[in-house]
Amino acid sequence: MTTTAQTYIYKLRKLLAEHSEARSGKELIKTHDPGYILTVDESQIDVFRFRVLARRARELSRERPETAAVVLREALGHLTEPPLVDVPLGPVLQIDAAQLAEEAISMVELRIELDMRLGRHQELVSELRSLVARHPLREWFHYHLILALARSGRRSEALQAYDRLRRTMREELGIDPQPLAERLQRVVLDGNDELLDPRLVPHALVGADR
After folding, report:
1. What CATH number does the domain located at 123-210 have?
2. Which of 134, 157, 166, 177 has the fewest CB atoms inside 10 Å of its own CB, making it the most exposed?
C-alpha cells in the first residue's frame, strides 16, 4: 500500500512539474510525516479564480457592463459544464458541485443580462436556445429568449418560444408558467415600444418585481 501511494505521488509531482503554473520553483507536494501535504495558492485553483472574477464582475456590472461581461466570460472559462463533471463525487463533493453549479448559472444569467443591456440580442439567441434545451424548467432562460427574439425582429419566433415554455411546464410539472410569462407574451403581441429599450429586462419590462 505504501509503495503504491509513493508511486502515485511521484507521478502527481511529475505532472504538476510539467504544468506551467507550477514552474515557480515551489514544491507543491511536500512530505509530511506520516504522509504528504499539497500546498497551492488560491490563485492556482479554478474555483477560487472563478469566484474572485465573479465578485469583480458584480461590482462592475452597474457602471461598466461591457467590462463586466468580459470578466464574466473569463470567470466562467475556469469551470466545466457542469462543474466537476470529470471528478468522481462523494457525498460532500456532490453538495459542493451543486452549489458551484448554481453559482455558475447565476453568473451566466448576469452575463446575459449585461449583453442584453448592450444590445447584443441577435448574438444571444442561439446561446439562449441551447440554455433552454439544457435547463427546460428554468423559466428565466425562456423569458430572455422570448425577449431576445422579439428585439431581433422575430416576434413570431418569440411567441413560439412562449408556447414551448407553456407546453413544457404543463407536460413536465402539470402547472402553468409564472404570470410574468403571459404578461411578456402580451408585450410582444402589442408590439410595445418599450420592448426595444435595451436597459429593460423581462421583469422590468412588464412592471413586475425582480
Report:
1. 1.25.40.10
2. 134
